[in-house]
Amino acid sequence: MDEAEKEKLRILLGYWIEHNREHGEEFKEWAEKSRDLGEAMVCEDLLDAVQHMDKANEFLLRALRRLRG
User: Fold this and answer.
1) What does the pLDDT average to over 25-47?
2) pLDDT, tens digit, for every residue of 46-62?
3) Most Cβ neighbours (<10 Å): which of 20, 22, 56, 66?
4) Backbone torsions φ then ψ of 37, nearest 5 degrees
5) Taking phi first (over 0 means left), then psi (-120 to 50 degrees means alpha), and beta for anything else, what does residue 48 get?
6) Is 68 exposed, middle or buried, given 0-12, 13-18 or 19+ CB atoms closer than 10 A?
7) pLDDT of residue 58
8) What local confidence, expressed as pLDDT, does residue 18 receive?
9) pTM of the complete model
10) Contact indicator for 23, 53 with CB cutoff of 8 Å
11) Which has the closest alpha carbon to 34: 20, 26, 23, 46?
12) Number of domains comprising the chain
């Protein structure tokens, strides 16, 4: 991988991490709304999605750190 590709990947990883964080916050908001609507199982599913998104971000962040050296 040449330096230009590495730089592009660094940028993409940063973007993906932030994008996932934003989605995770949105999922949390909708989890609360679904709970308020009496949809407890939907709320649980959304909160599970948040946990998986956070886990994905751990891997993306680790990849970014490794790429940076």
Assistant:
1) 98
2) 999 999 999 999 999 99
3) 20
4) -85, 5
5) alpha
6) exposed
7) 98
8) 97
9) 0.88
10) yes
11) 46
12) 1
Instruction: List CB contacts of 16: < 8 A, sequence separation 6 or more.
Output: 60
Tokens of 47: 């909160």
Which residue is it, tokens 């330096």? 3
Can you read off the two tokens belonging to residue 39?
């949809």
4: Cα within 13 Å, side-chain hemisphere: 0
Section 7-30 average pLDDT: 97
In this predicted structure, the answer to whether residue 1 has a pLDDT above a threshold of 90 is no
Joined together, the tokens standing for residue 55 give 């886990």
Residue 10's domain comprises: 3-68
